[in-house]
Amino acid sequence: MQAALAIIAGAAGLWAWQETLNACWLIGAVLMLANWPYTLLVIRPVNQRLKHLVVDQLEEARPLVVRWGWLHSARAALGTVASSLFFINLL
Fold first, then answer.
1. Which of 5, 12, 64, 82 could form a disulfide with 32 if both were Cys (CB 3.0 to 4.6 A apart)?
2. What is the pTM assigned to this prediction?
């Protein structure tokens, strides 16, 4: 669901930029759409490593989960900044 919402919000931001030529819409759209490559290139490898851990490798799980948390926070920040830019432009 989040992926679909990122695409919809990114497309809406691009449309708003095209209509208004306000660069904040473009920046917001790019940040929103940046969630896709960030997830695939940065977060997915950590997810894959976590999924393939076996019981005797559990000591590796904690640092990976902590890393995943920080990476997810960065992804959330992209959406937050993009949404904030959209909201500011609406005012």
1. 82
2. 0.82
Environment class of 14 (CB within 10 Å of its CB; exposed 0-12, middle 13-18, buried 19+): middle
pLDDT at 66: 94
Question: How is 2-61 classified by DSSP, letter by letter?
Answer: HHHHHHHHHHHHHHHHHHH--HHHHHHHHHHHTHHHHIIIIIHHHHHHHHT--GGGGGGH
52/30 Cα distance (integer angstroms): 32
Low-confidence ranges of the chain (pLDDT < 50): none
What is the DSSP annotation of 74-90?
HHHHHHHHHHHHHHHHH
Look up the domain containing 17 and give its range.
2-90
pLDDT in the model for residue 82: 95
